[in-house]
Amino acid sequence: ETGVTQTPRHLVMGMTNKKSLKCEQHLGHNAMYWYKQSAKKPLELMFVYNFKEQTENNSVPSRFSPECPNSSHLFLHLHTLQPEDSALYLCASSQGRNLDYEQYFGPGTRLTVT
Amino acid sequence: QKEVEQDPGPLSVPEGAIVSLNCTYSNSAFQYFMWYRQYSRKGPELLMYTYSSGNKEDGRFTAQVDKSSKYISLFIRDSQPSDSATYLCAMRISNTDKLIFGTGTRLQVFP
Which of A65, B2, B28, B104 has a CA that sits 20 to 30 A from residue B92's CA? Predict the structure, then answer.
């Protein structure tokens, strides 16, 4: 295991639901990331947090709302999603935003929006 | 035009074969190049990391970068069924940790 855990592993939700994805890293890292992985598309960076501060929002729709209460935990709050939001959502962490720091990925949450 | 192009495969080879995986890119500012391996139901894990043009070897894996052609490759020698996974190339420019990924190539190594 990489030291990055994500829950739930699978989630099915309707377009009117509100749900949250959780990520926890046990590596003592300071930077955390949310990525979206859709079929036949490259991984897309969504959000970056460094020392609990959001440092990047990659033009993500407001129906996705991140939260980083501390350096070990990262949430992605979801509401009024669309079917095209169905994808694998990956969390990653790194020691910092230094160029040489490797990003460690969690196993992802497979989200299906019906 | 996508910034990074990668053939999605699947690529199916017999055990013991030499595998060649490739990516092309359009942004000449990319300076750091990575290969990630992603097993089914897992997140990507970093396999190889290179900075300059040329070859870098690690066991059965060799990463090759040709900046003049904007082309990178990953070679796997003596491929094993355990190498069956999706291989993602990724790259970034200087002074940023923002990774730009390819779509991934699915590799199947059969016994």
Answer: A65
Give, for A79, the enclosing helix (H) or strand (E).
strand A73-79
Q: Which two tokens stand for residue A61?
A: 């729709």
CB atoms under 10 Å from CB of A27, counted, come to 13
Residues of B in contact with A97 (CB under 8 A): 97
Q: What is the DSSP string of B12-81?
A: EEETT--EEEEEEES-TTEEEEEEEEE-TTS--EEEEEE-SSEEEEETTEEEEEETTTTEEEEEESS--G
Residue type at position B99: L
Query: Which of the two residues, B69 and A99, has the higher pLDDT score?
Result: B69
Cβ atoms of residues B73 and B20 within 8 Å: yes
Percent of chain B with pLDDT over 70: 99
- Identify any residues that bridge with A73 across adjacent strands, giving them in sequence order: A24, A70
Question: B4 and A107 in contact by Cβ < 8 A?
Answer: no
CA angle A27-A31-A36, nearest 5°?
100
Predicted confidence (pLDDT) at residue A99 exceeds the cutoff of 70? no
The single-letter DSSP state of residue A103 is P
* Angle at alpha carbon of residue A86, lines to B91 and A80, rounded to 5°: 120
A107–B42 CB contact, under 8 Å: yes
